[in-house]
Structures
1.
Amino acid sequence: MRILVTGGAGFIGSHFVRQLMVGALPGYGVEDDVVVLDRFTYAGNEANLAPVAGRSRLRVVRGDICDPVVGGELMRGTDLVVHFAAESHVDRSIAGSAEFVRTNVLGTHTLLQAAADHGVGKFVLVSTDEVYGSIAEGSWPEDHPLRPNSLYAGSKAASDLVALAFHRTHGLPVCVTRCSNNYGPYQHPEKAIPLFVTNLLDGRPIPLYGDGRNVRDWLHVDDHCRALALVADRGRPGEIYNIGGGTELANRDLVSRLLELLGAGPEMVERVADRKAHDLRYSVDCSKIGEELGYAPRVPFERGLADTVRWYADHRDWWEPLRRLTGAAGAETLVETS
Ligand code: NAD
Ligand code: TDX
């Protein structure tokens, strides 16, 4: 089997590839050939693939998903596409959204067209719970209306709809997944958990947006990648699957746990201006993937978070260059590098 992984040099995509290469994903074996297509934006990093670099079954192609020639060439002979490539950071989409529409909407459309033209066997689009908007109580089922608030979420919602229309119109076997907030090793230090942890490791305060009451459901990247493999292997074409982690936490409670893990006091939290259109709470109903594919999260949050903190403490060589390049000490210092 040949698997094309777009965005395979980013946080979640590289975890998926590393897991694939060691045969750790259900339904896939060490004999499968893996092709990574990645543009290596500020978020793509060769170091994320270093543990599996040089393997004969892995080919890494530096290219843009918006380029129909690249996508077309790579689709030939491909059985499965797992599409991670995206602009993924909400704060960047507030600062400027053109790249989000280009990559997330046009790029996804370009890939879908190439996949349909070449008769690809399965196309998994990795989307997000943010497409549903914000929910004060209860949880979203997959057929809940989409009410995205950020430009990032709007661009992801558009790509979901285009993908599902490719299934209906051209019969492309598409599955759309909508996961909650991922965490784990190799996550870029612009995102909340790695930003907070690396700031504390550097003796700098945590920039907490607004009153810190916003709630996120934390999903370990290992659980997410296992769920994606189940969807790729056995998900029904044309269907949407929510994927959650089962640990909802207000940001201020998350921050308290990080302060405790790193032995820091409350003076290391700095309240900063709130994010524009900051969603109050995300919560996905995961019963469908549980009942159909047997998915349930396995990594307990306490252990996952402690391991993640330890990984960042042990891997300064990985994150220090990223912070120097992007100034990832808070949203107000964002600098485009690609
Ligand atoms: P990331 O920002 O770490 O990685 C994105 C990757 O895509 C990078 O390697 C980047 O170089 C590549 N890329 C960007 N534009 C490209 C283009 N035009 N052509 C080719 N490659 C390009 O993102 P992530 O956190 O790993 O997220 C992966 C996917 O999961 C995204 O689609 C994101 O929307 C979705 N998602 C992420 C989370 C999360 O918590 N991180 C939650 C829900 C959904
Ligand atoms: O400096 C910060 N201070 C702060 O309080 C940052 C960067 C974040 N936050 C808050 C905002 C959110 O409520 O922490 C929470 C998490 O923020 P992010 O890590 O930026 O994640 P979020 O906006 O929830 O979006 C994430 O989950 C859904 C991913 O970045 C998306 O790619 C994914 O689709």
2.
Amino acid sequence: MKVVYADNNATTKVAPEVLEEMLPFFSNYYGNPSSMHLFGGQVAKNIDNARQKVAALIGAEPEEIVFTSCGTESDNTAILGILRANPRKKHIVISRVEHPAVYNLCTYLAQNGYHVTELGVDKNGMLNPDELSDAVREDTAVVSIMYANNETGVIFPIEKIAGIVKQKGSVLHTDAVQAVGKIPLNLSQSSIDLLTISGHKLHAPKGVGALYIRKGTSISPFIIGGHQEKNRRGGTENVPSIIGLGKACELAKKCMGEEQTRVKQLRDRLEREIVEKAPDAIINGYKSPRLPNTTNISFEFVEGEAILLLLNEKGICASSGSACTSGSLEPSHVLRAMGVPFTAVHGSVRLSLCRYNTSEDVDYIVEHLPPIVRRLRQISPYNRDSKFQGQVSASHHC
Ligand code: PLP
């Protein structure tokens, strides 16, 4: 069966060039980079080389890059590391649409002695920087606002946000897991203090990430152990994956132009043709600046999960904007924060492309998705023509 993978915001395929670069580090070059001998030293040199490539992609200095095990660890390290370095400051500012790696951590912190201010977004998924300015206080240890949203692709005005945070004397962390490799970033021209990267979102393997820590930022380590990563992250390095992340960053730098043009054109055509063929479709975040690869579409009066199951039968991999697939009936916190109507929030589907998607992939999705939506709408109790509609809406609480 034909398979069209359109779930690249969930994870990406490891690029063949990345895998090739990693392989010798499972076999020939297995030394511990902390060892004094030549065998270890060789590996340490390659890690430094990878560090340079990660830094080059985001306009940072190599010493500002700390390797971690994933985006979640980088987010936790940034926020907990700043809190531990500033024990008197007990206030944190985040947005209501953060990834659980930030959002759930801050929920935990709110239950454990910290005050967390959550900034809302408007119906276009956009945050108001003026509200941020009002929210930052003298005791604000850290502001953590994502660069681009994983569900809608909406890009926040992070440089403006960074300017406000700096002026207020606080520290800005940004979760840039979805932005890095898709849009150009230049931290040498920025006031961002900490920035999260995850390998598996940019064609490196799972289980590796990085945290950018601006020179001079005072931060305590999250994982305490050996002297690795200049005492900023204990634990023997995941050498093959770090080498893979370096190569993936080098490739992403080369392919960035394509992401902005060809991949964006594919995404734009996908949206256009789906909206033409499936009435009552709403593109979430359409009016805001967005990542070039992402679309999040709500189909009114149908269940997103049902769409995904039928897409899956056709070999199309997408994901739902809601958490229903994980067994909870709670709809997406991101779409709820945007005020997407009840009749649409449950029927959202995210399609996220990458440089390996083709025009034929888009044709295939456009051929199959609208008929699936039409079919489901005919049998939907949510349908506006259905006599059950009022009863069903009333029984959901969102
Ligand atoms: N932050 C964002 C915006 C994400 O999209 C993800 C993954 O989906 C993460 C953090 C977590 O990254 P990881 O899977 O590497 O822990």
3.
Amino acid sequence: MVKLNENYSKLPGSYLFAEVARRTAAFSAANPDADIIKLGIGDVTLPLPEACVAALKRAADEMADKATFMGYGPYEGYDFLREAIVANDYEPFGVKISPDELFVSDGAKSDCGNIGDIFSEDCTVAVCDPVYPVYIDANAMSGRAGDWDGEKWTNIVYMPCTPENGFFPALPERVPDLIYLCFPNNPTGMAATREQLQPWVDYANEHGSVILYDAAYRAYMTDPALPRSIYEIPGAEKCAIEFGSFSKTAGFTGTRCGWTVIPRALVRGGESLYDMWMRRQSTKFNGTAYVIQRAAEATYSPEGKAQIAKMIGYYMENARVIRSGLSAAGLEVYGGTDSPYIWFRAPHGAGSWEFFDRLLSEAGVVTTPGEGFGPSGEGFIRVTAFGDAGRTREAVERIKGIL
Ligand code: PLP
């Protein structure tokens, strides 16, 4: 009889967004006429930039011609895209990363989870709390999280991010091997400064830990002083792996493309982590589709850049509307200036799910309860700026109306 991976049976109930969907469907079934506005799941709503669609079509035509047809591509991605990412997302920020240190992926989510393949099952994992649930669940599946005690995983180092510490974690007493950091952060919407990140880089180098830096929301940073990449921090090339994504930058959530940087200088136990990841990818991954990589390349064309700037401007205007509207209603509001997420405290000490239910039933607005992102998220709600502008304004008015 086959034996199953028992770690899966330890995973608690339904995934956060499944529970949000379940409650929304139940409300909708009970109130078929209700006009529901969804500001919950962090998916984009605007179509792909025209420059990307044109590149996709051109690449599809190439695939239709024997002379230009492309079969299996390089495991680490085509040079044209690796070079474009480095030239546009690293060089302008003074980061010396070579295209040869970068793997094209099918999005940040897969690699954030799969990167665990190259580390021992005994590694201790630290995460910000609240956090994008994938980091914890992926490590729970491979046995690194210990047991679920109803609130937390016994082997995960939770690093609270609260208003008291400016939503930036303190260095933990128990030294973790793997440290997930995500800035601008999902769900709190807060970005990190150089001064905040430098001690983490120094700490990781001192203890031989590895930082797994998720920069999926970097395109939403508006403050020019904030670092776009962990590699802007001296020493990071010796301790950090960085994940990037076209999902939120260019509406690629359904198109799927991202990247992972593993500097050659990142060595642990005498092994190059780049070489290990290359070995892993060449065994378990056959590359991102050529047509998709061409579409991603087009995000860096002059037209692509202009279209993306417009798209991000649209979402950031939503963020401004949500931020100012909720603040004016007397709520304690965070994020939304360097990220597409707004994080606010439920009023009068209400619990996250309690206030989520109230927003759904009284305002017809779907949000995400902070508790679903970790224990320190209890009492908070996440709202996304990825919705339609008119509907977002209406949602804010409705929320103001019930407060
Ligand atoms: N990282 C964070 C922090 C996210 O919030 C998300 C998606 O919501 C992802 C990664 C997933 O990115 P991708 O679509 O590139 O897999």
